[in-house]
Amino acid sequence: MLGLESVPPQTILLAVGLVLIIIVLMFALSMGLSTKSYKMAEYQEEKKCTPEAPKPVPRNVVFKKSSYRLSNLLPPGPCPTGYTNFIGNEGNTLCCATTNIDPYYHTCSAGGKEGVCSMTPGIEDNRGISGDVSHYPVCQIISKQQQDAKSGRFCPRRFPNWVSIPNGGGLYKCCGGPLSPGGVDCMSNKLCKGLGNGQTVFNTPDSCETVRLLEGISCPKTTNLIKDMKGTSGRTNGLSMPICIGPKGNCFPRAVLQKFRDLGMFTDIDLDKNILNCEIYNKVYNDRLWIESQAETTKSKDLD
Hints:
alpha+beta
């Protein structure tokens, strides 16, 4: 007791207050830890009860699925010339090289490797054709082959790319530049058109046939080509005629005379002797292989 009596009262009160503060802090700390543990336990329990949301399937996995068919998503586009569009028994867009298609079994009666083609590469050919053919040929490739063949047959060098005119009854264009996507039209207005009903190379000077004819002809030396001289008499009146104008007279390239004869004109002259043929004109007046009296100089009645 003697020791406590010597301690000042302020010191005793300070020590008691400090002890009380420590007790309160320890109590608060223990309560906080208990609450946090309780919430963690509650969260874990809730997580076990809530099902996880399904994760999206990666795009590359979707594209690898065996049932995936690109032709179901792409527009079918036009079939090659002579082919008919139909939907195969697996839902793929195909083209048949005939119009004989079974509407119930969705099959094409055309045989051969190219009897059926697909708009999309990689479509399996389930017809069981012998050989190593396991996929349908691609229709766009067949169309390109057709266009290349017809370009070489019908188109002039100035307009080298052939394309069919839709619903044109067999009419076509030849394009001076690239074709539009799908190969159905010209990308620019640099083009020519094939002859229609009633048209000839002599009344349609801008036709593909006329341009092609002009690309293949030449005139004898000392003469000049007039591509579309207008006829003024006879059956040639009003026609646009390719003709060679020279100091000794005029003549027609043999190819032009043959076009006339195909139309029933100039049949009254001998192409191998008449001076109207530029080959004979050249032989007489340039090469001097013939004298003029050896050539036929009669005028065709179609020029009268």
